[in-house]
Amino acid sequence: MIHNVGAEREGSWDMHLTSISSMLPYMFIANRVNYSRWLPVYILDMLNLTSDIQPAFSSGQFAIRQKPGKFNGIWSVMATEKTVIKDSKGRDGIVGITRQKSALIRWSLTRHVLSEFSAEMRTRSGFSAQEEPSHEETRPTALRRDEEHVKLVIEHVQQQMTNPFDITSHPKALINISTGMHAPKEIESSLTKAFDDGIKMVKSFVNGALAEEKEVEETLYELDNLYLRQLHEISEHRQLQDRNEGDISDDNVFQGYRQITGNKYSAHNKLQQPGKRDDNKQLQIDEETKENPLSKVVGSGKNRRKTLNQKSNMEKRKKYGKPKGKKGLEEGYKFDKPSELDPDSNLAFLFDGMSIDDHGKIYQPIGRQIKDKTRAIADGLDYHPDPPSGKLKRNFDQTVAFWPNGIVPYEIDSAFTANQRAVIISAIEEFNDKTCLDWTAYDNSTHTNYVKFVTHAENCYSYIGKIGTIPQTIGLTSGCVNTGTIVHEMLHAIGSWHEQSRKDRNNYMTIDIENVQDTRKANFDIKQTSFDSPFDPASDLMYGVYSFTKNGDKTEIFHDWRKEFLAGTGKTLSFYDIADVTAAYGCTDSCVSPPTCQHGGFIDKTCSCSCPGVLTGSTCQQLVPSSANCGGTINIAGGETYLLTSPNYPSSYSTGLQCTWLIQGEPGNHVRATVTDMDISNNGNACYHWLEIVYDLLGNKGPERCGSTDHEVWDTSSDEEMNTMIIKFDSFVGSDKVAARGFSITLESIGTGCEDNPCVYGSCYSPINSASYICTCNQGFSGTNCNEPTVYSIFECTAEIDQRCMFVQSTNDTFNWGTRSGPAKYYTYSGITGVTGPGGAKEGFVYLYTRTYPDRRPGDVAVMSTDIDFPKVERCLSFWYHMRSYYAAHMGTLEVSMTDGSGSETILFSRTGNQGIEWLQEKLEIPAVDDLKIIIKGTSGTGWMSDMAVDGISLVPGTCESPLATPDPTKTTTTTTTTTPTTTTTPTTTTTQTTTTTPTTTTTPTTTTTLTINQEYSIFECTAETDQTCMFVQSTDDTFNWEKKSGPAPYYEYSGITGVTGPGGAKEGDVYFYTKTYPDRNPGDIAVMFTDIDFQKVERCLSFWYHMRSYYAAHMGTLEISMTDGSGSETILFSRTGNQGIEWLQEKLEIPAVDDLKIIIKGTSGTGWMSDMAVDGISLVPGTCESPLATPDPTKTITTTPTTTPTTTTTPTTTTTQTTTTTPTTTTTPTTTTTLTINQGINEWNRGKCEWIFQLYY
């Protein structure tokens, strides 16, 4: 509405059309019938204006101005009412005088003549415009009254209500601003989904009323030109729900509204009530492009058609990353607000499996709803009673009581509703379709034993296997009536125990029994099961990782964390569940000459191969089709490597891709995939596009990875087919999001020596066809398994995923330190920020955390301590801590202590009470002692606001002021060698050496190396990171400074909308340069920084990333890059104004070779508060952007000084004799590595102060 008024005042035709379009869903949801009927037709008319009218309207002539101005236009209809028809206005207008059609027509056609006549008569009568009384609302008394009313309203809002204009205290929940009461969930849901429901009503109305004739002229991208791109913003941030492939794209919500612009003449005659639909008129979807034909506009005749600039449209598609042909699902925008995903949806399952790589730091998305899934809730109601009598027989083995011939009679209790019965029958059909079991309706004349599905007040349960009770019941409470849970209980009834109860489960996971509810611990007991398939985390019989937690922490800890997202998500029988049932019940016993299934496939009840995942064919030897120009089978011969890259690499891949590769290595060996380069699109918290690595069980989904890295290793497991891996790449689901560079992966076969991850502090390699391994140790560690620390070892505990921590949890405390990413549970509470706990990690993404409410009591302690044999050397313990409590008295105590060989404990650090909202750092000197142990203890305080956290813990040799200098890293390769003395007695011809020693003198040159640096090759940078120098300095002649910022900009997320203004984080590293607009800046304020370096005269390339995001494009200001030379003249190299989108964008500028070069970066605040801009990753490289100047090796001057050294030269004399010799032969492989590192070029700003140190090892 504000934009609609603004369009009137400013005379902006584009803004008018976009604002009218954005109102449509609200008109429908509010049941404004006339607006809903006729606005679509109005929009159609306005998009098809004739060539003589359209330019006039576009130039603003639809609005009337009494005098020149920028914000004083009014609608022409209002101007008409104040002029032409002013003297005809009455209570009911002209229809109050007559309703006769011919009279109305005459009145309309002659009104302007009558108006002139009326004006002339008024003039002759002595009246003038100045003498006319003003509008009653503009009289002084009315104005004073209005001012008083405004003051009263403001006073009442501020004192009696929740102030809706105070953006700093907006609660997240929907409330009544008058009473402060929270709205019921159903009302909140209804209101927050109003826009989405309105869109559905628009589409329904369009499908029924306006889609009769074939549309011909494409206007798919026409409104992309419109001012503010308002509809694009609404689409991105309101996030349209329930779209399918044929639905509207995310680029511009008006593409969806354009469904309403069918042939207007047929629409005029056949308009229906909003929400009604003529089902005989279905829209046709183009399957090739997934475009909706209602996104096209027609008129009646050539004079009503609007010709579009096709080239312009293609440029727009390219700008927004649109692929040619099939566009994909275009649902990447839904990952921007994970809290709005249905926890049981496929998108939520994808989200749960994601992890983002930030240059070696891997983290999982914040906002996963693992605990909220229907299965997770139902698992919490699961229990298994003992049978009424007799010894319980269970498990899929020879002792279990199976159902004879696989026939399971069943009956469904009449207490279930019709819908619940349908769900139960669906689960039964699932069993009957996929296995040889026959769940058949119970017939008392035929069957004796049977299963009866009954309702239960609190739980869902089943006995294990067939028992003697008639009937044998499966109990289901209402929360358990879903297919996944029913199948789970049915699997129990036919004889199967839980997956986490398998006797081999400890090879894959650890049950943290201390976190399990006392009454449910038996659900995690190990059973003496037999099994035909590998341990399957995706089994429908697998609990989720939080099942039966009593404190919110995980009850199941996967040894390979990448698999945990599969646990507890079963909605049906998994691939391996079917295989287990098939084997247990002998479903294939009658098969004759069945095929030999490959790649983990198995013979099913039809005597054919059931194939995992993306494999097909009679023996599972074929791969399902991929998108064009990607996917396929890759065979890696022994000793070879294969380079797999994304399509178009290193250029950006296309969106809309689904690629699948089947990698097969040497039998008996593992496949190793080493990611050497990855840059895959994401929003910092979730993947838009991803790699999926299926490295474990081919029948299960693999984890997804995106982000940026130059090194990550994936090895296949030995649980199934170790020489087979499946790699998938998907840019199809999130095809509405911009593509990135892609990936490069090196594929090879390796041996089996690395299966148990033997290299503790290092990386592992196993030669092909070998069970041996080679460990490459991290700096400061040595030994065959890189597990022997030295005095130079650095120990850390970052809490990050897949990172080793030097601390272990104590078993003699009250509770454990947990890990958490994102804000603490009560960081924000009741509209207050910073109540207790941190807002996120200090370093990386995960921190160690003690949560107080609701399970902790005052004085409860959580203790962790080191369990490493540290070498005796003084050290510095550094860590960050956070102890925030809104009420200081609530906060407990954080204590760090140490013990030595004597066992005495020394307290090194102690803090009690509120320490503020920020993370604080502490460094502690640790003396050199024997048997060092460091202990961190958190003690709960007296109130619930007592959450504390630690992060970034490191133990570095040396003192805190003078860390121990660590020698240059040396790659130490230690081979596990077998030494076999072999004694052989044979007659041989032996060569015997007689040695003559002759003293000689040898001259050894001593070499001095001098480095000469040519500064024209210097590379200059400005990364904004801490302790990094920057070639730019702040100007003192501007309004404000560029500041440094890490993490999201203050208003990156506002009022539930992501990406309002400013970036979500740095583009490179952790820190970026940033101009903050609200609340201190005014339009036109400038922030300037410039170089202050005496550059050599050489052409250069200036490269940088910039971010200019504004929810309202008109708010955004201008970013400008310029340069000056010796003449002092300034040349503008780059300028951008207005919203540039939510992503970081890169620019490269050619800088000519000039004297006295100075580069200037200027940010100018825009007209509104959504004007935050940022730059990052600035570099100035010699040469052109296409051909950087090759940097030569440092120039060396070598001076040789002869030194005379007495040495001994040995001259062998050989004599051949026939002897019989017993020779012990020992085979060993020594490895020597010499590393020489020499810095090239110069990359510093205080020239003349650079100190070069060379260490050359021979």
TrEMBL record:
Protein name as annotated: Metalloendopeptidase
Provenance organism: Mytilus coruscus
Biased composition (Low complexity): 967-1007, 1192-1232
Active site: 489
Ranges of residues in domain MAM: 795-962, 1020-1187
Biased amino acid composition, Basic and acidic residues: 132-144, 327-337
PROSITE patterns registered for this protein in UniProt: ASTACIN, CUB, EGF_1, EGF_2, EGF_3, MAM_2
Residue ranges, compositional bias (Basic residues): 316-326
Binding locations of Zn(2+): 488, 492, 498
GO CC, one annotated term: membrane
Coiled-coil annotated spans: none
Listed InterPro entries: Astacin-like_dom (IPR034035), ConA-like_dom_sf (IPR013320), CUB_dom (IPR000859), EGF (IPR000742), MAM_dom (IPR000998), MAM_domain-containing (IPR051560), MetalloPept_cat_dom_sf (IPR024079), Peptidase_M12A (IPR001506)
GO biological process, one term: proteolysis
Cofactors named for this entry: Zn(2+)
